[in-house]
């Protein structure tokens, strides 16, 4: 790339009276859009996956009529505004669904069978395929504020938050 840039700079400098630092942007652009012979693609195509847009100023521009330019601009604004509104609505739906999921009260009664979240799974040494839930456990009592006493099959009693429990 450096050698290609130097060669391109030398050619452009030879054709113009400007200093090399003024021509650097042009030379870089030329190198980036020139196809590499071995692979048949330019660095621009490799990076962005498409051909670069040509930078040409046409004599008879279609936007010479300012009314057409304003109409097109307003149409694009309407389209972008509609996209923004639909995106906003979808985002709010997702947020509300997440809030509703978090709000769902887990009302368990005594003697209900539940599964407990497997916290050992979140440790660094745990394996990906370990189960997310373990159990079944039996609800002994409700301690209030979402805290439950659960009893394991072997008789061990633990206090557990209701968010970490689900019905068996």
Automatic annotation (TrEMBL):
InterPro entries per UniProt: RNaseH_sf
Source organism: Anncaliia algerae PRA339
Entry coiled-coil feature ranges: none
Gene Ontology MF: a single term: nucleic acid binding
Name of this protein: Integrase zinc-binding domain-containing protein
């Amino acid at each position: 790339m450096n050698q290609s840039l130097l060669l391109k700079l030398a050619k452009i400098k030879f054709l113009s009276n400007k200093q090399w630092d003024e021509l650097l942007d042009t030379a870089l652009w030329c190198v980036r859009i020139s196809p590499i012979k071995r692979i048949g693609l330019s660095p621009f195509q490799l990076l962005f996956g498409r051909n670069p847009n040509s930078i040409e100023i046409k004599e008879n521009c279609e936007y010479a009529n300012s009314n057409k330019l304003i109409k097109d601009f307003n149409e694009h604004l309407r389209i972008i505004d509609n996209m923004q509104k639909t995106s906003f609505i979808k985002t709010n739906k997702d947020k509300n669904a997440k809030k509703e999921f978090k709000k769902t009260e887990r009302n368990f009664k005594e003697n209900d069978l539940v599964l407990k979240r497997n916290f050992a799974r979140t440790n660094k040494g745990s394996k990906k395929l370990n189960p997310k839930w373990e159990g079944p456990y039996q609800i002994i009592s409700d301690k209030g504020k979402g805290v439950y006493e659960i009893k394991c099959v072997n008789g061990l009693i633990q206090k557990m938050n209701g968010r970490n429990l689900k019905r068996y």
